[in-house]
Amino acid sequence: MWSKRYSPDLTPPWKRSAPVPEVPAEPGLVVEEVTTGFCGAVIRCEKTAQGPTVTLEDRFGKCRVFPMEPRGFLLDGRVVTLVRPLAAPPAAPARTASGSLAVPGARARVARAGRIYVEGRHDAELVERVWGDDLRIEGVVVEYLEGVDDLPSIVRSFAPGPDARLGVLVDHLVPGSKESRIAAEVTGESAHVLVVGHPYVDVWEAVKPASVGIPAWPSVPRGQDWKTGVCRALGWPENTGAAWQRILSGVRSYKDLEPQLLGRVEELIDFVTAG
């Protein structure tokens, strides 16, 4: 026994309407309503009890609201169905160069009595590049020492206390070094002083080589000026100031720095702002 299956739509093929494209009704899209011929730019879409509507504004500033019916509009002479535009995904929260959540419009806090000291100008510029926004919000000032030999007298002159903590970042802070002996002397005198450091000969090395465009930081023989030796080994002009600017330009965020420096600076900020 032979049977014939019919499509649910019994309309003859020659009478069926061809499908039309669905177009998101984005603001500014210019369309023409097919029934009235009203032409205008999309101002907004709204959800109502009778269904979604679209508001169009013509070139004279006149606005009209239309239901978003199927096949209800012309776009460049072609029939289309307007649909509500997809909601934009929520924007990811902006972050500072240090990875902290940015605070739009935040004003710098009045400077605290506490301070962070670093060894030299390059250290200070690197800290500013990555943590500058955070430090301004926290009201922490960074100053540089030009070496650590005079650190004990500087600390005594600063007179740290509960409301004026002092954090110090030292280069090449490794066991048995001159820097480690000075750090022990300073921290032994006051509980309101914290001295931390990284293992690198100079803060240059705390920048990841890949961020500078080199395979690795070269080894410089003892007794030779380290920065000059680096420039010589890399084939750079022996101008350490220009070399530093080249290095600093490769630092865009905390991701360009080695973890051994990142953790120490964060530790100092937490210490100075505690309480």
From TrEMBL:
Record-linked Pfam families: DUF3097_C, DUF3097_N
Protein's recorded name: DUF3097 domain-containing protein
Residues covered by region (Disordered): 1-22
Residue ranges of domain DUF3097 in the record: 22-85, 115-273
InterPro entries: DUF3097_C, DUF3097_N
